[in-house]
Amino acid sequence: MNAIPPSGSLDGLCAPIADSRAPKESPDVVCDLLHAAQQIRKLLNERLEPHNLNDVRLAVLKMVRDTENRGGCSQAELAAEIAQSESSVSTLIDRMRGDRLLYRLRAPSDRRRRRLVLTEDGRAALESARRDYQILIDSIRRVLEEEKQLALAALLTELSTAIGDTTFLPITEPASASPRDVSPAA
Length: 186
Hints:
The chain is mainly α.
């Protein structure tokens, strides 16, 4: 099994993963999660490219579709949901509008506010990408037995909840320093 090398964002931070099946003395769970997420994101974006989508555009289309029953969503709501700044989302929305995937409607309750809704092209792109997305998800699921999938889902939910908790604070000193955690003193 060939490992996908970490992208530039992890170079120097995480040790290279030569073989993900090899036992580890002290696992770096965060780097392992980041590496797995990068691999999944790369595969997903390869599947979505023929639909003129990527993982972020797909997330936007799904959220806008899921909010249609209440008239769409605002850019601020979208930015919060996909954890991006409002200025980044504004640029993204402008590009997606240029590709005729979304449009803005005035909110009936407040004419100053705009709501995002799918165009027919946006709906078609989301539908055409759905099959390729599902094939990838099914392939990933086959890697783990059902019991492991459930355990992983529970652990990821627990981790997400803890990180989102207002009492979650950055640790100033590592609990136990390993060579990957600490750089030598100058």
